[in-house]
Design goal:
alpha/beta; single chain; UDP-n-acetylglucosamine1-carboxyvinyl-transferase, Chain; about 30% helix; globular; 24 strands; binds uridine-diphosphate-2(N-acetylglucosaminyl) butyric acid; four-stranded mixed beta sheet
């Protein structure tokens, strides 16, 4: 299994380009199931999760591939009228976002059988809100043998109020509602930029969606959709991670392709920590302070501070001049990086869903183990600041969500190597 070795010390400087967003790409690939023609997605990140979803689509009889010659950044998906609407356990257990095929399969093919995703390292992650909404749209839902079996001759528009804000839940139901008969109203919908990107593509396919990006989304159902050519938005979490790489190394990095409007909360906290962050014509530039100031933060749904950036900010605040308090409000178990950061000398105490981070003067390199995607990023960031070498094991977690992060950091002057 690969490891990434990080030798701490260098200030990172220069320019780096953000890849396309993983969490926008996955629902867009699922949405391609809805179109009667082929869909082409550009700016797709070359990640293990994308490959897994391509594989899943192919097992259904869908023509789904990387377009040759486009350096694996373009994907083409064409679903014939006779797909096998099933997502088996073996693929869903690899990636819970596979559950995103449920809405489109149900809407276009009237039937879906999808393995129930289990929990994962960061929490239980149920899909009750997805299922509640499909029932409201008239689907018959059976849970049997670890699978969700959903059927509907044609879904019917309805008003759905999510009891809990859910990103993939909002996306899944949106993809079902576009082909339903009549009007669907989604209340308490997720406002993430990835939901907005999905709605933009669906509207270009012929859907009629208003309000995506707000908590009230209205969908007028249509009877068919076409394929589309769509360019995926850039990855705000990768962009944020690169901004923190600049911040933690006292560096000066221009993150090209970062969208300031998607990163307000993150940039706000970086500024509080003493970073100079300025928008440029094509992204954001971040200069790190000598010693970061302590900052309190709470993760919440967009436009609040994203849970997907919590571990990275914690790495930065572990070397702040004072004590920061970080509350994780989205997932119940997303502090798995704490024990590893402590092995590098960080002084962090966890009480329930709150971490109290007392800044230390130096971190020291150590062998550490990644437990989830963003935790791995946080350990690499800490390694950039630590004295000596940090060896991050289990980097397959990182590879699920960051395209060649260690190579991007190298171009900025980091001493990072992948060891097979
Ligand atoms: N929840 C329920 N019931 C549901 C759905 C969600 O109780 O039916 C709970 C979850 O257990 C969690 C909270 O609601 O406590 C929020 O979950 P949400 O459904 O919004 O998360 P998700 O859609 O499964 C997406 C991203 C995650 C990101 C979260 C929160 C994708 C593919 N994944 O997950 O990304 O952390 O939203 O922003 O879009 C990552 O990229 O590292 C990652 C984990």
């Amino acid at each position: 299994m690969d490891q990434i070795h990080v030798e701490g010390g260098p200030r990172l400087e220069g320019e780096v380009r953000v890849s396309g967003s993983k969490n926008a790409t996955l629902p867009l690939m699922a949405a391609a199931l809805l179109g009667e023609g082929a869909t082409t997605l550009r700016n797709v990140p070359d990640l293990a999760d994308v490959t897994t979803l391509l594989e899943l689509l192919r097992t259904m009889g869908v023509d789904a591939q990387w377009v040759p010659g486009a350096e694996r950044h373009v994907v083409r998906v064409h679903a014939p009228p006779n797909v096998l609407p099933e997502a088996p356990y073996d693929l869903v257990r690899k990636m819970r976002a596979s559950v995103l095929v449920l809405g489109p399969l149900l809407a276009r093919f009237g039937r879906a059988r999808v393995s129930l995703p289990g929990g994962c390292a960061i929490g239980a992650r149920p899909i009750d809100q997805h299922l509640k909404a499909f029932r409201a749209l008239g689907a018959e839902i059976l849970l049997e043998g670890g699978y969700v079996e959903a059927r509907a001759r044609r879904l019917k528009g309805a008003t759905v109020r999510f009891d809990k804000i859910t990103v993939t839940g909002t996306e899944n139901v949106l993809m079902a509602a576009v082909l339903a008969e009549g009007t669907t109203v989604l209340e308490n919908a997720a406002r993430e930029p990835e939901v907005e990107d999905l709605a933009r593509a669906l509207n270009a396919m012929g859907a009629r969606i208003r309000g995506a990006g707000t908590d009230l989304v209205v969908v007028e159902g249509v009877s068919t959709l076409t394929g589309v050519e769509h360019t995926v938005i850039s990855d705000r979490i990768e962009a944020g991670t690169l901004l923190v790489a600049a911040a933690i190394t006292r560096g000066d990095v221009h993150v090209q392709g970062a969208v300031p409007a998607h990163l307000d909360a993150v940039v706000g906290k970086l500024r509080e920590a003493g970073c100079t962050v300025v928008p440029t014509a094509d992204g954001l530039r971040c200069k790190g302070p000598d010693v970061p100031e302590p900052v309190d933060l709470q993760t919440t749904e967009h436009p609040g501070f994203p849970t997907d950036m919590q571990a990275q900010l914690m790495a930065l605040l572990s070397v702040a001049r004072g004590t920061s308090v970080i509350s994780e409000n989205i997932f119940e178990n997303r502090f798995m990086h704490v024990a590893e950061l402590r092995r590098m000398g960080a002084d962090i105490r966890v009480e329930g869903h709150t971490a109290v981070v007392k800044g230390v003067h130096t971190l020291s390199g150590a062998p550490v183990m990644a437990t989830d995607l963003r935790a791995s990023a946080s350990l690499i960031l800490a390694g950039l600041r630590g004295a000596g070498t940090t060896r991050v094991a289990r980097v397959y977690h990182l590879d699920r969500g960051y395209e060649a992060l260690e190579r991007k950091l190298q171009t900025l002057g980091a001493r990072t190597t992948r060891v097979k």
